[in-house]
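BUG: 3D viewer hangs when loading the predicted structure for this chain

Environment: internal workstation, default settings.
Expected: structure renders.
Actual: progress bar stalls at 90%.

Input used:
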Amino acid sequence: MNIAVKRMLAYLIDMALIFIIVSLIKLALPINQYEIELNNLNEKYLEQKINIDDYFNESIILAHNIDKNNLGINIIGTVLIVIFFVIIPFMSNGQTIGQKILKIKTTKKNIQLEDYVGRAVIINGLGYMFFMFIILYLTNDNIYFILINLLGFFQILVVIINAFMVLYSKNRQGIADKFTGTRIEKV
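Structure tokens produced before the viewer hung:
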């Protein structure tokens, strides 16, 4: 298996582990009332009891309230990203859990903690989460909806561009590698 495929599989393994942990924690928490309201709103729309404009306007308000209500779980997810993509590789010779499984590691001639932080901000969603926390309480429902969707689109675009760079560039470096001067090698 080539290094580019191993990189992507390692990333998917790490993100899947984070997703599983966050999902298990969320199951133990009380149900978010706004999520129930959004489900009810979806049913009303599907049953054609409300029009698209009312649906859209109410869903924007509910989405903002859902994110405010999920602040704790979002903080936990952010902490897990830091643990999985910054602390673990920094303390274990440049390897995340997924990278250990696939026998690859992040390298650089004097790799520092800030290199892992930079990688996590760019490719693992820390930048997205940071801005989400800022705009969550500083904007109204409509502005939040626009900005969070733009940020989400930008984060997905970065991940896709990174994947193509890893697959098709001569040196197999992605955006985060270029920015931090790191590369991924076989162990």
